[in-house]
Amino acid sequence: MVSLSRSKPIATPETQHFWDGTREHRLLLQQCEACSHIYFPPRPFCPSCSGRSVRLIDASGRATLYSYVIGHRPAPGFEPPYSIAVVQLEEGPRMMSNIVDCPQTPDALILDMPLEVKWQALDNEITLAMFRPAGKAAL
């Protein structure tokens, strides 16, 4: 477990299952039982058809880099340079995260590059899903 000075997400009734999953190193998404749409972030209804019958599914942890910015100014819990990214999960939804275990440069952060989840425990309650280049050894 790493103690970071970054802001800690606060679980809500709608997101508690997601944070329970990340603590167990499971990336849980919701899938509508009416239209089969898989979505993120968590919410009590389907954003596609408004159906309220949803189930949890385990995501593969694989993604591609959709978009990013590189931060060069210090921020709580981040040592510059650092990336703030949008990743496209293999299952379809996009989520914001950080890209780790690679240089934080445009030469290294290539759009559509394959990624895999890497877990970062903030404390005993919250574990973050970050992403690193797939199949690459950690730096």
Any chance you could write out the topology, listing elements then pairs?
Blueprint (H helix, E strand, L loop, with lengths): L15 H8 L4 E5 L5 E2 L14 E5 L3 E10 L10 E8 L4 E4 L16 E8 L5 E7 L6
Antiparallel strand pairs: 1-2, 1-3, 4-5, 4-7, 5-6, 7-8
Structure description:
By secondary structure, this protein is mainly beta. It is built from 1 helix and 8 strands, in the order H-E-E-E-E-E-E-E-E. Strands 6-5-4-7-8 form a 5-stranded antiparallel β-sheet. A 3-stranded antiparallel β-sheet has the order 2-1-3. The longest helix is centred in the first third of the chain and has 8 residues, at 16-23.
Report the principal-axis shape: globular
User: What structural category characterises the helix and strand content?
Assistant: mainly beta
List the strand order in the largest sheet.
6-5-4-7-8
Distance between the termini: 18 Å
Supply the number of structural domains.
1
Rg measurement, Å = 15 Å
**What percent of residues adopt helix (DSSP H or I)?**
under 10%
Low-confidence stretches: none
Mean pLDDT: 93
Number of helices: 1
Number of strands: 8
What does the largest sheet look like? 5 strands, antiparallel
